[in-house]
Automatic annotation (TrEMBL):
Gene3D superfamilies tied to this protein: 3.40.1190.20
Organism: Salmonella enterica subsp. enterica serovar Poona
EC numbers for this chain: 2.7.1.56
GO cellular component: cytosol
Pfam family, one: PfkB
UniProt protein name: 1-phosphofructokinase
GO-annotated molecular function: 1-phosphofructokinase activity
Length: 103
């Protein structure tokens, strides 16, 4: 729904647009901050990633890897992606980009 703004900004900044578009809505996270500084987070669900989506993401990202100096992997495991599928992708990514860490 909101990819047009990203595409325009990336184009203006000369940044390659490598987003993977899947069916569904982007996950929304809302923070409410009280006057006293207390913060309440609302983290809503995002889209489900199909096996075909995940295969495309994995293959495309490994192909693009040669065009960048580093890769940052962050966030939650998307619904629909098994820990095994993610681990397999990370193993393949690490074979091309060995300087990885976790935190």
């Amino acid at each position: 729904d909101n990819q047009d703004g990203f595409q325009q900004l990336f184009s203006e900044l000369g940044i390659a647009y490598r987003f993977q578009v899947v069916q569904g809505r982007t996950r929304i996270n809302v923070k409410l901050t009280e006057k006293d500084g207390e913060v309440t987070d609302f983290n809503f669900s995002g889209f489900d990633v199909t096996p075909a989506d995940w295969e495309r993401v994995g293959n495309d990202s490994l192909r693009w890897r040669g065009q960048v100096d580093m890769v940052c992997v962050s966030g939650s495991l998307p619904a629909g992606v098994s820990p095994e599928a993610f681990t397999d992708w990370m193993t393949r990514l690490r074979s091309q980009c060995p300087c990885t860490g976790s935190g």
